[in-house]
Amino acid sequence: MAYCTRCDAQLARRRRTPPIAAPTAFCLASAALYIALLITQLLTINVHGRVNTVTILTGPIELGREGFGEIGLIVGLTTLIMPGVVIALMGAILVGASRRTMPDWAPRLMSWYERLREWSMIEVYILGVFVAYTKLIDLAIVDLQAGVFLIAALMITMAATDSTLDVERIWDNRDIREEMADGQGRILPVEHLTATDDSMPPIQHMLSCHSCGLVMAFDHEVSREGDMGDCPRCHQILRRRKSNSLTNAAALLLAGIICYIPANMLPVMTYTKMGQPDTSTIIHGVIELWQSNLIPLALLVLFASITVPVLKIVSLALMVLGTWRKQKRGLRLLTKLYRLIDIIGRWSMIDVFMISILVAIVHFNFLANVLADPGVVFFTIVVIVTIFAVHSFDPRSMWDAAGENGPVPAPDEARQNSGQGGISEAGSSFPPHDMEPERA
């Protein structure tokens, strides 16, 4: 593996599994599990002889019937539509990659897969199912159905597809021009260059594609946020930095802060038992789990629904303010923190998924009933806008503003001067050109 000596980000890695066969097998398994999941029950609840069931389809439908159509749409997108879309995209990508020369449509599908994969939240949904199950077992007889095990299996096969997919091997099948159409940029053979190589262009003249990782060299200095044409490999727009990164992130962060207060103050659902209503907020749900001696689950919900949103808001605020102030202290820590909140941000959807399941299955009129409340709308907005805020922010802008994004020294020099950065290789017995580039 290769790591950045400035912030320890993983720059490249080598897959040791078959580049096409392994992900294809897992992708086919995911497709079969997904189809079976659509027609399989998740839970069955029995209240004094009255039985209700819930599938992965019923939650979004019931939220729409109760007047929370936007939340139902988000739940449906993240648990129904996006998993199917990303499985179909991966299948098409693998079909294209299995050909001797990659078709022209495959690179665009690769770009869309990268964008949409995060919005497939099957692994978050299954935790929402377990939280809902723990809340129901005190109410009635609850049975787990085959759908729960299908979700668990689907989560594993989709993760295995991603972990065995060797993107660089797939890109090797892409026949591309060595130069851009306008002749201004050329592909830089980074696998044959070192930081001390005389043929290495100045860092201000180099640019890597945000989508496929292809490194380009230009005969002039590259603009910070200006468009530099289309990538010859994946056809995405080439930019050195994300456009309007700071402004967009700050605006979305402000929206998240505004919605965070009502998200925690307003009730997210009302539970009625024997005609007696009882409203519940996010923190009240955590307390109930703790009082029921479900301490691990209470800590999980506390982390996902309270700690993660606060961590995202505080971290992004520090990054935005630090960039505006051109702060040099803590850049390494903030960059690592950015990668952390980028990974864990979507796990806050656990409570939203739990509410969608309870609303769908607990319909017993006077005996027991669960209704969604406005708090869930604000909470969902907080989760979504903070995810977009993280995506909008470019952590490299912190280093740019602080003047710490200068020329990259050789690895030995970089180890002595961690402020300037470089590339280090650890545990690697293979050449750099066999590695898969991560986000550049």
Explain the overall architecture.
- The chain is an alpha+beta fold.
- It has one domain (2-173, 242-401).
- The chain has 15 helices and 13 strands.
- Strands 12-1-2-13 form a four-stranded antiparallel beta sheet. It has a three-stranded antiparallel beta sheet with strand order 4-3-5.
- Helix 1 runs antiparallel to helix 6 (146-164) and helix 5 (122-136) packs antiparallel against helix 6 (146-164).
- The longest helix has 30 residues, at 295-324.
- The protein is globular, with a radius of gyration of 24 Å.
- Mean pLDDT is 81; it is low at 414-440.
- Residues 402-440 are annotated as: Disordered.
- This is Paraquat-inducible membrane protein A.
- It is found in: Cell inner membrane.
- It comes from Asaia bogorensis NBRC 16594.
- InterPro entries: PqiA-like, PqiA-PqiB_transport.
Write the layout of secondary structure elements.
Elements: E1 2-4, E2 10-13, H1 21-38, E3 41-47, E4 50-55, H2 58-65, H3 69-97, H4 105-116, H5 122-136, E5 141-144, H6 146-164, H7 167-171, E6 185-187, E7 206-208, E8 215-218, H8 245-265, E9 269-273, E10 276-280, H9 282-291, H10 295-324, H11 331-344, H12 350-361, E11 368-372, H13 375-392, H14 396-402, H15 411-416, E12 423-425, E13 436-437
Antiparallel strand pairs: 1-2, 1-12, 2-13, 3-4, 3-5, 6-8, 7-8, 9-10, 9-11
Helix pairs in contact: 1-3, 1-6, 2-3, 2-12, 3-4, 5-6, 5-12, 8-10, 8-13, 9-10, 10-11, 10-13, 10-14
GO cellular component, one term: plasma membrane
Subcellular location: Cell inner membrane
Protein name: Paraquat-inducible membrane protein A
